[in-house]
Amino acid sequence: MKKAIVKIIFSFLVSLVLQAQENPKFFQNPIIPGFHPDPSVTRVGEDYYLVNSSFNMFPGVPIFHSKDLVNWEQIGNVLDRPEQLMMKTPGNGGGIWAPTIRQHDGLFYVIVTCKQCINQCGCGDNFYVTATNPAGPWSNPIWVDKSYGIDPTIFWDDDGKSYYIGSTHDIGGPQEWNSQDRIYISEIDLKSGKIISTPKILTTGHAKNAKFAEGPHIYKIKNKYVLMISEGGTWNNHAITAFEADKITGPYVPLQVNPVLTHRHLGSNYPITTVGHADLVQTQNGDWWSVMLACRPIEGKYYLGRETFLTPVKFEGTTPIFNEGIGQVLLQDKRPDLPWTPFKRKFKDDFEENQLGFDWNFIRTPLSRWYTLHQGKLEISLRPEKITETKNNPSFIGRRLEYLKSVATTKMTFKTSKENEVAGLVSLQNENYQYQLVKTKNSIELIQVFNQDKKMQSIQKIISVPYNEKEVLLRIENEGMKLRFYFGSNENNMIQIGPDQDASVLTSNVAGGFIGAYVGMYASSNGKLSKNKAEFDWFEYRNR
Questions:
Q1: pTM (2 decimals)?
Q2: Other CB atoms closer than 10 Å to residue 4's CB: what's the count?
Q3: Which of helix, strand or coil describes residue 510?
Q4: Hey, which of 165, 186, 293, 392 would disulfide with 385, CB 3.0 to 4.6 Å?
Q5: Residue 402 among the catalytic residues
Q6: Which member of 125, 151, 187, 214 is catalytic?
Q7: Does residue 29 contact residue 46 with C-beta atoms inside 8 Å?
């Protein structure tokens, strides 16, 4: 009898634990880990859609769907065709910046800045695309005529007029202080992309010496226009400030509580830093929430880049109060009052589909099809392009690092009789800062690429181990500021190659730019033509 009672109690406790796991009271930040900066969010009914910057990676602008603001499933990429995004030249930090997503009269809009591309896309150009279904297909770009600067957004007023808001220092005369930027507004014809009113400056920031006023969004709150922007740049001085006006065109008055959100006063070793570039969304229940970018530093450095975080907001009049009573973004917080809707994540890609998953990226736009998916294998052609070069599209297929502790493993089949041919795994920040774990003619090699003085690229072979089998498993583990590299003939026979390596090589602090670290599959014939291919059976990426 006692055993039966104990068994019942035990089963009841287990069921409570399972229920808590299935429907937790709290959520973990970041809601979208890995390099997912500059988030923008919109709601349609009970569905939420979120987009991020993608910079020089193709496809551009990942788009996510959620029912609860916490569980976000990627449903596509907004710019997934070369005719939408022809990136041939942009280096680390070029490409697609700061998208905004909005929906109006049944049509979705994503508007972005596109820098240093080819054809129409010159430095500082802005365009938007539209779709009736956020999963796509999205239209070809509609270029905004006579726009200035960066970080565009769209706002529709109650009278039906549509407005373009952006950030620039190209209008309003000389800068009064270093890094003074101006938020401006113009009426826009969204059918043609033409600006139809003279740009009007709304603010240069909340203080006389405010730097890098950017990332603007306008909201209609209690018959007032609330302008929310970012200031201080996207490093430790990042902050969010807010302004209000009686008319869409201003004048805008800074709120007395500015900055409405920042972590810059908490120090560079705080668990969450660089908080800024926020967007607001109101739930179907009337609650307000904000998404924003922030970083999780390790020893003051970032290799996961800028990630997407979530925090609650309440309005006191027209003043947004971020995380009432706390005033900070937390790693764990009480989740929104919305139906808990998790989805099944796929950690292992067996390459059984006829197209790559949405989370796979290329460096710049592929100008030809140099990979195939066939009978559960991914075949990557060896081409002359090198991953250490700029202004090309190497044979690299990668995904963002998401976790502070993770492991990436792939099974590869590759054989060559030529000294110049290699294939394997690469973890990189850009062409000058990376680690390569590759199979060559008769060895496994670990290579570090570094550029200490920012002038001369250094490619150093750390270690070479004899290996003659055709098949090999390759693995990269990250833990804090350490990277470990392994190879083996099967999963039960993995051998670490070389000592632990310094992960700071992959951080923005060392490598520069904005991009978070990537890991992926790579093949190259290093400057010579080749008909050889590397075959990948599967790729697995997991949290540790």
A1: 0.94
A2: 8
A3: helix
A4: 392
A5: no
A6: 214
A7: no
